[in-house]
Design brief:
This protein is α+β, with helices and mostly antiparallel strands. Strands 2-1-5-4-3 form a 5-stranded antiparallel sheet. The chain has a 5-stranded antiparallel sheet with strand order 7-6-10-9-8. Keywords: DNA-binding, Nucleus, Transcription, Transcription regulation. It comes from Smutsornis africanus. GO terms for molecular function: nuclear receptor activity; transcription cis-regulatory region binding.
Length: 349
């Protein structure tokens, strides 16, 4: 319900807790940031201000000479001092209240990559840490920052409306849909069974967006994250819905296992603006070998160059209801991008 998210940061600068709504504002998943250094998320120019506000007296000790400081995303480490409760002001003291502004890394912001947040809260004792000093004795609870982080710029009505419809989908590594949450079923109109019925999931993507999505798919397989991807999805009513998505690779035992995609619906005007900004060159060539991921025999007998009309060649293609048999006969892998285009009904364009 908040226009923001809850953040609890220890005196060393580790994120002890973040509410899951951090994903709606910064694009990072809750589990990605918990128990990580908060300084990895903060603009380098604002790290000292954040460190100052973590200290009860607003004057954190400097790291000893030769020791790495918290700059550059490291936690405070040895420069953090453990205090006894009787050395600190009482917990209800107004001296421990905090209100300051910091720029945080934001995967959803494609202009600067940072979002200015106002952090409002107070330093409170964080219990249950069970930390020990170097001699093995138990340390008393230390002060941690408990704050609500809200964007400096108030959200527009449009942002509030679309934020409430953020949905998540789960996919196999080739992008075949496996699961969709309740909001996704409302936005797209499909049941999970309908999403899983056939194909890699690219058959739900607009032909003009397929190569763009495939490029970010390849990037995600290499780096673990797709980055911001804006494209059109086909709804059950045969309409195109613009979404802004961020996909990330989930690994198990060090091996990629599946893909989780967080998607935010956009209005057509926003989607059109992204389309104008998008570069028109092909994101990868058939010479690189990356295109072989999609196993398309090229050129294809009996088919025009599928990209000669900026990806919209599907308008002129016939509808293939028995696409699997026909595709294999013509040498088109049904799981390739061209196979996905051929599965679509030309009426949707």
């Amino acid at each position: 319900a908040l226009n923001g998210f809850v953040l609890v940061v220890t005196s060393e600068g580790l994120i002890f807790y973040s509410s899951h709504t951090i994903q709606d504002y910064l694009g990072f998943h809750q589990v990605d940031v918990m128990h990580q250094s908060v300084f990895e998320l903060i603009h380098t120019e604002d790290q000292q201000e954040f460190r100052r506000n973590l200290h009860w007296a607003l004057s954190p000790p400097r790291a000893p000479e030769g020791e790495p400081s918290a700059e550059g995303g490291k936690s405070l480490g040895s420069s953090a001092v453990a205090y006894k409760p009787d050395q600190l002001p009482p917990e209800n003291s107004s001296f421990l209240e905090r209100s300051f502004v910091c720029r945080f890394r934001c995967l959803l912001d494609h202009s600067s990559g940072f979002l200015a947040l106002n952090l409002q809260g107070r330093l409170k004792f964080l219990h249950g840490q069970n930390r020990r000093s170097e001699d093995g004795s138990a340390l008393p609870p230390q002060l941690a920052l408990f704050a609500i982080s809200t964007p400096l710029q108030p959200p527009s009505i449009l942002q509030i409306r679309t934020k409430n419809m953020i949905f998540r989908t789960k996919h196999k590594l080739d992008f075949t849909p496996v699961a969709c949450d309740a909001k996704g079923k409302i936005v797209l109109g499909y049941t999970e069974a309908e999403l899983r019925v056939c194909g890699t999931g690219y058959q739900f993507v607009h032909a003009a967006d397929m190569l763009y999505c495939a490029e970010n798919h390849v990037r995600m397989m290499k780096t673990g994250e797709s980055g911001l991807t804006v494209f059109r999805l086909l709804t059950k009513e045969n309409r195109w819905k613009w979404v802004q998505a961020n996909a990330r690779l989930v690994c198990k035992n060090g091996k990629p296992e599946y893909i989780i995609v967080t998607q935010r619906p956009l209005v057509d005007e926003e989607g059109g603006e992204h389309l104008r900004k998008r570069s028109m060159h092909l994101p990868f060539t058939f010479a690189t070998g990356e295109a072989l991921l999609y196993k398309s025999a090229y050129p294809l007998p009996g088919f025009p160059d599928p990209f000669q009309s900026k990806g919209k060649a599907s308008k002129s293609k016939k509808t293939f209801h028995s696409h699997r048999g026909r595709s294999q006969k013509d040498g088109v892998d049904p799981s390739s991008l061209l196979g996905a285009v051929m599965q679509q009904d030309k009426a949707v364009y």
